[in-house]
Amino acid sequence: MKKLMSLMMVCAMLATTAMGCGDDAAESTATTTTTTTTTTTTVAEETTTTEATTTTPEIPAPTVDANAITFEDDDLWTAHAMCEKNFENDESNVELTVEEFNGTKQLRIQVLDKDDKGTYKVPKVVFNIAELVGAENIHKIKKISCDFTANAVGDFIGDDGNAALVPGNAMGALAGGLAAEKKTDADGGLVQNTWATFYEFAFDCWDWQWRYEHVEANILLDSNRYEEGNADATFVIMRWGIPNQADLYVDNITFYDEDGNSIPLVYSPS
Fold first, then answer.
1. What is the pLDDT of residue 56?
2. Are the CB atoms for 270 and 75 separated by under 8 Å?
3. How far is residue 183 from each of residues 175, 235, 242, measured CA to CA in Å?
């Protein structure tokens, strides 16, 4: 009988100890949850503070070639909207002006149209390249470089509903109208294209109002070079559609030959 009573007392003590352990575990879990919540709140506060105190980057000082189009003379240098289908396709009408930005005059491209979903459409800005370097010289062009700056005008609305005055994504292409018709050799190989996309650029900015990017487009295929003497040859800058309003500034457009020498400009600003 005594053994039975002792055994019952031991079982009771073990049950009490188990209940105590369960309470400690619950407290530990509660403490961990509280700590995690506090940490999350702290991170959110730091992110907000960082965004509020972020300063804009230093103004770039690009190397400007003697034969670069700098727009310092207030001329558009033949720039105009493509107006491919009277702006009824994905192309947007644009307002083109020369304005001072970050201490230098640049071509400002303002996108005017949205599509049915509220996305700003694609600006397609055309330069008459034969007028710029001479129709007899366009076949020499092997590389084209320019400087872009994407500058926010309207807020970007994130998936969380928060608004920020940032340009977001800036993606697009440098392209050109090369010749009036395609040409092939005796074996049917392409020797002259009519249109080519030279380079697709992509950069973004989520921290401040503007972002600068230097872009270089190398023409890799001989069939994608300009046809000599084509007076209708064009150089085209396009930026793909974006949900927010952001201007694209263009500066220091330069054309190079296959030896890396800049090609002189023959255009006379009005």
1. 72
2. yes
3. 19, 20, 36
Cβ contacts of 221 within 8 Å, gap of 6 or more: 193, 196
**What token pair was written down for 36?**
């995690």
Express as a percent the part of the chain with pLDDT over 70.
80
**Residues 151-184: pLDDT tens digits?**
999 999 998 999 999 999 999 999 999 999 999 9
Is the pLDDT at 203 greater than 50, yes or no? yes
How far apart CA 244 and CA 204 sit, in angstroms, is 13
Q: Which of 151, 219, 175 is nearest to 82 (CA)?
A: 175
Q: How many whole angstroms separate alpha carbon 248 and alpha carbon 92?
A: 13
What predicted TM-score, i.e. pTM, was given to this entire model?
Answer: 0.79
Cα-flanking dihedrals φ and ψ of residue 125, to 5°?
Answer: -100, 125
Buried residues in 226-264 as b, exposed as e (16+ CB within 10 A): bbeebeebbbbbbbbbbebbbbbbbbbbbbbeeeeebbe
CB 248 within 8 A of CB 201: no
CA-to-CA separations, 220 to 141, 143, 197, 249, in angstroms, rounded:
11, 9, 11, 26
Sequence length of the chain is: 270
Residue 43: pLDDT band by 50, 70, 90 thresholds? very low
Given a cut of 80, whether residue 150 has pLDDT beyond it is yes
Q: Closest Cα to residue 79, out of 193, 238, 257? A: 238
Q: Which residues contact 240 (CB under 8 A, 6 or more apart)?
A: 122, 171, 172
Alpha helices, H only, 70-162? 129-133
For residue 137, give the DSSP letter.
T
| DSSP 8-state secondary structure symbol assigned to residue 116 | T
